[in-house]
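WP5 quarterly update. Target: AMP-binding protein. Source organism: Xenophilus arseniciresistens. Length: 648 aa.
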Amino acid sequence: MDTTFPQLLMKHAAERPAAPAMREKEFGIWQTLSWAELAQMVAHAACGLQAAGLQRGEHLAVIGANRPRLYACMLAAQALGAIPVPLYQDAVAAEFVFPLSNAEVRMCVVEDQEQVDKMIEVRAQYPALTHIWYDDPRGLRNYSEAGLQGLGDLLQRGQALAAQNPEFFARQVAQGRPDDVGAMFFTSGTTGNPKGVVHTHRSLLNRAKAGADFDRLTAAEDVLAYLPPAWIGQNIFSYAQWLACGYVVNCPESAATVSIDLKEIGPTYYFAPPRVFEGLLTSVMIRMEDAGRIKRSMFHRFMDVARRVGPAKMDGQRLGLLDRLLYGLGDLLVYGPLRNTLGFSRVRVAYTAGEAIGPDLFTFYRAIGINLKQLYGSTETAVFVCLQPDNAVRADTVGVPIEGVEIKVADNGEILVRSAGLLKGYYKNQKATDEVLTADGWYHTSDAGFLDASGQLKIIDRVKDVGRLAGGANDGAMFAPKYVENKLKFFPHIKEAVAYGDGRATVCVMLNIDFEAVGNWAERRNLPYAGYTDLAGKAEVYELMRECVQKVNADLAQDAMLAGSQVSRFLVLHKELDADDNELTRTNKVRRGFIAEKYAVLIDALYAGRDQQYIETQVKFEDGRTGSVSATLKILDARTFEPVRKAA
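Structure tokens (predicted):
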């Protein structure tokens, strides 16, 4: 698109001034902001930031949840030719030092007292941070930190300056060019320091429009913005596509009210990683287990109908009369009320990305009439590379290349992408840029996969993680850890899995239980427990985990290429893997290398054939304190299966 984000804002404000642009829930009441009101707020913010000294090409950090005034500040920075850098609000202070110093940030806009406290702490290591503006003033009345002000003060100052120079903002917006840098997003830093991914207005808007055209999005859509704005997935759906289409973005009151707000808004366009869909389904199944016998029986009977009929109906296939009648009755009694309970009664298109989603989970949502689809992309590709077309949705693929995308597969199985949505480069890191971008414009995704006969892309694993077993009966067999981990996480009782096996004779895994799901399972069996560590170590829980592992092994045995990746031994970790303990990234991706070092004693025990191992682990609490948790972990063997030989 030959335009910029602020220019799109002004276009909507001119053409549809009274139409709602954003809603924010405050004190339990939805407050609406029109396009004209938003444009005025952005103009005042831009004037205030300019007066504070924000320069063209400079970076402005934005830290917080989805809030209208934080969005306005991102637009204001872009209007001035500056570059917004959204950062994860759940990061601890130390994690901000590198991105802020790397981007040479002098000014930041934050949400509340929690983020202000982090920025004050950051100043001890990075004193160049001179200005901190906050949106929510609660708890900040008695702060006297230099350069600390409320956003209200910034907007008031900007309003006065705008009155003195009413043409300033319009002139600044007009100076913007599509190839100007529009935003910078830091990667999750799975293997080291995060990298700043530089995107232009053109690259972000090109992919936003391609995705919107693919699913025929209009200004009539409603979106709930509840994921971190620092994640490019949320940013594309609630910022780039919002301005490209002109639909309404709704900001929940807090993380605790998202499920309630979801039902109240009833979004038409929805995006979430698989863990959100898993959590919603787990809560449904827990509630059904606690329901009466008649209600439970009706639910399971009609869900059998839904699984048999629903996906075909969703794909536009013709159904027999009896199936149509049964599904219609199920929709009246079960599926419709269930969609309403989940907040999906109005969803026209729902997407999931970031991780593989289990086929059973995927089928469940499509079976009850929710058009859930998968997409493929990354921070570097501005998200939209492949999308699943309506009526051609499969659980084992991530869709077809959409308009403006070329894909090819390298000799080593790596997927290469070329499109107008690619990053301009990594900030201050030419070496890393040259490693991923070729001279003729191809981006190395680092993902291994292939295009199947129907033209849909299938992802196997990260190229660097695809290894080989060494020694034993499966010597030389392919090992794809992510593939194994995802299959294990498809079970609702398993929250996380970390698989090892490259260069070894067998595959072993460490598991995290889903505390809510397994806790409910235990309570229904009158199995007492005192917290996560106690529950994770129960013999009955270990047998439950063994059942899951062996089902995965039976499934892997069906695939001649990956049959050697069956799990031979496993243990259940005594604590949940946590981003605050550096075991996960802020986007909840496993840091496999770090975990291998931290839990080396457990990996050694798995491969040494021991049946138990003591471990003591340091943990970090939310308030910054540290402590330790210890346990003697059991290690169990799992049954493996002979590979199924396909008939010639």
